Q: What sequence folds into this?
């Protein structure tokens, strides 16, 4: 499901952050990639709650990866949709 709707980061759990999924209709792939980088920086600097509030995003734990999969992120997924 996520792959059909969102462009996704992978590996943010390696630095203690949730993944970032941005809706494909948010913009071009370049714009979405830039936004994912920006949100990653915001998560690291301001924290999860600030990003959820400021970006009107939501936190999901519905992962397509099994908990024992290397790509599984126990911190969840920040989902950003077009307003």
A:
């Amino acid at each position: 499901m996520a792959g059909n709707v969102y462009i996704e980061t992978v590996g943010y759990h390696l630095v203690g952050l949730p993944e970032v999924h941005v809706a494909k209709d948010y913009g071009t792939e370049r714009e979405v990639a830039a936004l994912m980088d920006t949100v990653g920086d915001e998560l690291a600097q301001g924290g999860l709650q600030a990003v959820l509030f400021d970006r009107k995003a939501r936190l999901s734990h519905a992962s397509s990866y099994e908990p024992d999969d290397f790509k599984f992120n126990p911190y969840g997924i920040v989902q950003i949709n077009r307003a």
Remarks:
- The longest helix spans residues 29-46.
- The CA atoms of residues 6 and 37 lie 15 Å apart.
